[in-house]
């Protein structure tokens, strides 16, 4: 009488190899996404700091112009001009920050789309193989 043959067990390492490759790709993808987030944050910081530097220089000029003013009308003109320029520059800066945000969002969407397409191609290749 012959013994029944036990069904062959799948090799656990053979099954985990594609998972390990996908996990590594996922980790690299997440690292790239974090790097892009860091880069975006730095763009914001650079823009904000350069704007603040300019505005602080304008504040110093305001103090100098007020100190040099000889009468009330001259001081009033200095203050009115300062406020007008400040409002204009702050609104322009808001537009620049919105533009940066828009560019960052579109870059992120493009990058996520590329990563997704690459993952889909890898899954399709593994399915065929």
Q: List the domain count as a whole number.
A: 1
**Derived structural class:** mainly alpha
The averaged pLDDT comes out at: 84
Shape: rod-shaped
**Count of helix runs:** 2
The largest sheet, given as strand count, sense and whether it forms a barrel, is: none
DSSP strand tally: 0
**Terminal CA distance:** 40 Å
Radius of gyration: 30 Å
Q: What percentage of the residues does DSSP assign to strands (E)?
A: under 5%
Give the helix proportion (percent range): over 70%
Uncertain segments of ≥5 residues (pLDDT<50)?
A: none
Features:
129 residues, mainly alpha, 2 helices, rod-shaped
Question: Can you give a write-up of this model?
Answer:
The chain is mainly alpha-helical and 129 residues long. The protein has one domain. The chain is built from two helices and no strands. The longest helix is centred in the N-terminal third of the chain and has 57 residues, at 12-68. It is rod-shaped, with a radius of gyration of 30 Å.
């Amino acid at each position: 009488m012959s013994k029944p043959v036990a069904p062959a067990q799948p090799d656990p390492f053979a099954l985990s190899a594609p998972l390990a490759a996908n996990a590594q790709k996922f980790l690299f993808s997440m690292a790239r996404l974090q790097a892009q987030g860091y880069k975006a944050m730095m763009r914001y910081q650079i823009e904000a700091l350069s704007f603040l530097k300019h505005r602080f220089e304008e504040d110093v000029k305001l103090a100098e112009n007020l100190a040099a003013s000889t009468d009330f009308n001259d001081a009033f003109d200095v203050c009115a001009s300062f406020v007008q320029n400040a409002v204009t520059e702050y609104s322009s800066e808001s537009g620049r920050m919105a533009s940066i945000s828009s560019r960052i969002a579109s870059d992120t969407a493009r990058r996520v789309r590329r990563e997704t397409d690459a993952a889909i191609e890898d899954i399709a290749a593994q399915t065929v193989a």
